[in-house]
Specification:
By secondary structure, the protein is mainly alpha-helical. Helix content is 67%, strand content 0%.
Amino acid sequence: MSVPASASSRPARLLDAGMCLTLRPMAYPAFFEMYKAAIKNTWTVEEVDFATDTLDIQKKMTDAERHLVRRLVAFFATGDSIVSNNLVLNLYKHINAPEARMYLSRQLYEEALHVQFYLTLLDTYVPDHDDRNRAFAAIDNIPSIQKKAAFCMRWIDSIQDLHRIETHEERQRFLLNLICFAACIEGLFFFGAFAYVYFLRSRGLLHGLAAGTNWVFRDESAHMAFAFEVVATVRREEPELFDEKLSASVVEMVDEAIECEAQFAEDLLGTGVVGLSPENVRDYLKYCADQRLTTLGLPKRYGAKNPLTFMDLQDVQEVTNFFERRVSAYQVGVTGEVVFDASF
């Protein structure tokens, strides 16, 4: 088997076409460190205990809260599968550094783990076969989820016809796809979903879901950090790509993502969940969006404060303690901290 000429040496830039196979000398050690950190964060679905959750749903929750959970698990049913498809079809192909591709391979494993977690969640929360089938078909028959899925699929399709990204316009298209999945899908859609989980936990409900979500939250935060490091690397190597046109496209994308997620909030909370309103969620999304924009080197757009007090930093200690208690259950000890308002 012959090795392509492009594999024998490092490309000049991260997005240069080819198949670099050279780990030494290592051009992007930050990606390798992220890969190693991800390995330390290994967990399994079998460690999550849903024992009390079923009783909560049957005996302790209001009809409005049950509706929230049904819609939330319907979104979870396919959310991480969408991210996995973009990772395989678009990102792995164009980020040309073996250490970065090592991280993406690990991320793909984590996305599969999340899919397994949510499958187990649906089997536990939705025992009826027909109801489960409807949950998995939510992207086709629930308008608020359908709108979010259409947003995601449009951005997957935006670069699927690109086998190489060589021109200025093609590279910007790639960056917008990467930014969309990091800042909007993982950084807004998923963070919005996490907020509902932690709201229910603040009410003393669904501790099994919250426990598993702690691990998913940590994974998704790392995924965002990796994607934004890719963006920062490309900015250093090709600053001309980061022009006013790209900035305007990012802002437009974030605005649309907030509207999609705000419609989802109206659906989840429209029957009247005590203690949480669609307006609260919209403000929280704007708060998160400003953090994403800042990380991308763009000015804050919304100036919103976090209205969800249960997502404040006092929760960090609880989650950190949770991980410390679970270290013995891991193949590898977990280090680091979870910060709910980190500027990823």
